[in-house]
Amino acid sequence: MVIGIPREIKNNEYRCAAIPETVSELVQRGHSVLIERGAGTGSSISDTDFVQAGAVLTDCQTVWESSELIYKVKEILPPEYRFLRKDLTILTYLHSNAHREMTDELLKSGCIGIAYEDITDAAGNFPLLRPMSELAGKGGFFMACQFMQSINGGGGLMLTRVSGVATPEILIIGAGNAGMGAAEMAASLGNRVTILDVSIERLESARNRLPSNVQLLYSNQSNLSSCLSRVDVVFNCILWPKARKDHLITRAMLKAMKPSAMIVDVSCDEGGAVETCRATSHDNPVYREEGILHYCVDNIPSAFSRTATYSLANATLPYAREIADKGPVRALRENPHLRKGLTCFYGILTLEETGLKQSRPYKRPEDITELAH
Ligand SMILES: NC(=O)c1ccc[n+]([C@@H]2O[C@H](COP(=O)([O-])OP(=O)(O)OC[C@H]3O[C@@H](n4cnc5c(N)ncnc54)[C@H](O)[C@@H]3O)[C@@H](O)[C@H]2O)c1
Questions:
Q1: Quick check: pTM over 0.85?
Q2: DSSP state of 290
Q3: Looking at residue 215, which CATH number applies to its domain?
Q4: Of the residues 173, 223, 239, 295, which should be mutated to test ligand 1's pocket, given the most ligand atoms within 8 Å of the CB?
Q5: How far is CA 138 from CA 15, 144, 185, 188, 277, in A?
Q6: Is there a contact between 128 and 116 (Cβ–Cβ < 8 Å)?
Q7: Low-confidence ranges of the chain (pLDDT < 70)
Q8: Cα angle at 318 between 315 and 321, to 5 degrees?
Q9: Buried-most residue among 109, 128, 144, 354 (CB within 10 A)?
Q10: Which atom of ligand 1 is nearest to 139's Cα?
Q11: Which domain, by its residues, includes 275?
Q12: Among the three residues 233, 268, 298, which one is the final residue of a domain in this structure?
């Protein structure tokens, strides 16, 4: 199969879908890999690195027009719509529920679209979300270290244990992939860390993985309120249901926090668990509400693009390889986890979430004759 890797064109997106190791594996299996010149530059991977791994370097148009599988990172943007066509398969983060116009274009073209974020594993988890969540949690901690500095407008606290000085207190809400990433960093620097979660299993697993300077509490209003009044940094790492309208941390609750405290909203759901969250960008990452500093960047991993590229490419390769080896229809028919990510198939919407959110007709992939087992 001919696999194309275009350069990402979204603002502040420095990741690339492939790494040289990915390319050599695909080439060794008999596939051809076309890479757009400069696709790896944002992740410090040179064109030469890709050529040495067996890729053919070319321009954007040739990558899109000559490939059967487009393997990328972000959703399809307007300049890329003209390349969509029926005999093309796209494997990427699509987030079709948030992009109505792109969904129209995908359906109109009749291409096959498979979304990383909806692919599942045997335990029902999302293996292509996990690596980025971990990096967002870890990266969010580095951002807290940066924006806590007085030279950056923060409270001037160094987030580590220093002799003779009170140890900073850090609250992490949600002990999932992101929360555990933040907790690992915060705890390893000696901070006093509290994790809140509603899942006892998640708290149990956190207890086994983290050192004893981490307290594990059940998430309820009483524990949350007492933590909020004394901590220096709050990390929101909950996977908040999209339909939920209430908030865990309301605007009124910010008044009980220390004025020097900050909130890092890793989950970054506007109107979600943190009422005062609004998504920000790396260009303008922080703002204050009720005097409390908020950091709400919705693509933290792209600041750590090389790490993120390697981590994402390792996780996505098995799916790209299966599509390339078997062809998309057989791969989708044989792999129920890949099928969960199917967003559109020859003009039919196959993702229930997008169908419901955008009031569009949709079909379950299992009800499509070509995909039935
Ligand atoms: N900002 C970014 O750049 C970025 C990047 C990747 C992921 N994310 C986001 O990070 C969030 C977390 O992702 P994840 O993979 O860690 O999710 P996850 O499902 O692994 O973890 C979520 C945790 O929240 C817990 N939880 C649910 N309700 C709770 C409550 N009321 N109180 C306390 N805990 C509660 C769950 O039990 C679970 O342990 C998601 O919203 C994801 O979209 C952000």
A1: yes
A2: T
A3: 3.40.50.720
A4: 239
A5: 17, 10, 6, 11, 19
A6: yes
A7: 373
A8: 135
A9: 144
A10: 3
A11: 130-298
A12: 298
